[in-house]
């Protein structure tokens, strides 16, 4: 048997384990087995162990591989529960959500973990996530979670300090929003004042232009009148000149 440091389950073994569980969903979901079904389930795990050990090291017994699967499911449940808890703490604001990798998504869909981690009740607590297994398996401590290390498994970390930071972050975000709203209101007031001033200036210019137009109209009327008088005067002079010429001819 390998030492503790060599008992890291490889990614290839986990992929094969998930593949086997997808082929045998009842076993993967951990439904309680009794009588013949229980014996058949143990035989299946013996077959699984042979396949998984061929991809090792590490090598484990059928029962140990069963507990590897149980702890893997529990890790995914914890991750989803912590994500939900962080979301509730932040009140829908920015939270430290840890995404599931594709393999974990496959497991979550297989055993419907997302439905188990409900948005109410005590299901948010990580301590309430119980592996589905027989009573004799629960009492068996032949393999501990610390021995079952998972390659590239992102474990969510939730602490009081993180929760405090999240709350502070939410307060900071709200404060920033309030400041932005104040700034926006002030900017709108200044813009409105400028628009009103511009309207006054435009109206004033309109009145000035209106008066200038009236003056120009008056000047035009004067020019017309002067032109008419000049024309009449010219006509009169022409008539007088004609009379003078006619009178001179008559005297001759």
TrEMBL record:
Keywords: Coiled coil, DNA-binding, Transcription, Transcription regulation. Residues 181-233 form a coiled coil. InterPro entries: Myb_DNA-bind_5 (IPR028002). Residues 9-81 form the Myb/SANT-like DNA-binding domain. One of its GO terms (molecular function) is DNA binding. Involved in transvection phenomena (= synapsis-dependent gene expression), where the synaptic pairing of chromosomes carrying genes with which zeste interacts influences the expression of these genes. Zeste binds to DNA and stimulates transcription from a nearby promoter. Self-associates forming complexes of several hundred monomers. It comes from Lucilia cuprina. This is Regulatory protein zeste. It comes from the Eukaryota.
């Amino acid at each position: 048997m390998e030492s503790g440091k060599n008992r890291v389950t490889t990614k290839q073994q986990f992929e094969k384990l998930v593949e086997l569980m997808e082929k045998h969903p009842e076993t993967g979901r951990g439904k309680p087995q009794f009588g013949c079904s229980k014996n058949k389930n143990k035989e299946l795990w013996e077959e699984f162990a042979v396949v998984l050990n061929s991809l090792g090291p590490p090598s484990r017994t059928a029962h140990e591989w069963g507990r590897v699967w149980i702890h893997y499911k529990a890790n995914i449940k914890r991750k989803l529960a912590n994500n939900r808890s962080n979301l509730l703490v932040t009140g829908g604001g920015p939270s430290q959500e840890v995404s599931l990798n594709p393999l974990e998504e496959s497991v979550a869909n297989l055993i419907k973990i997302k439905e188990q981690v409900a948005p109410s009740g005590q299901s948010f607590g990580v301590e309430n996530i119980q592996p589905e297994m027989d009573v004799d398996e629960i009492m068996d401590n032949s393999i501990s979670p610390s021995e079952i290390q998972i390659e590239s498994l992102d474990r969510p970390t939730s602490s009081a300090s993180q929760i405090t930071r999240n709350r502070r972050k939410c307060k900071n975000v709200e404060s920033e929003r309030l400041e932005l709203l104040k700034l926006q209101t002030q900017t709108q007031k200044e813009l409105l004042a400028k628009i009103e001033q511009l309207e006054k200036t435009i109206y004033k210019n309109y009145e000035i232009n209106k008066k200038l137009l009236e003056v120009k109209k008056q000047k035009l009327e004067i020019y017309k009148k002067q032109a008419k008088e000049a024309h009449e005067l010219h006509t009169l002079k022409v008539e007088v000149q004609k009379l003078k010429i006619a009178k001179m001819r008559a005297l001759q």
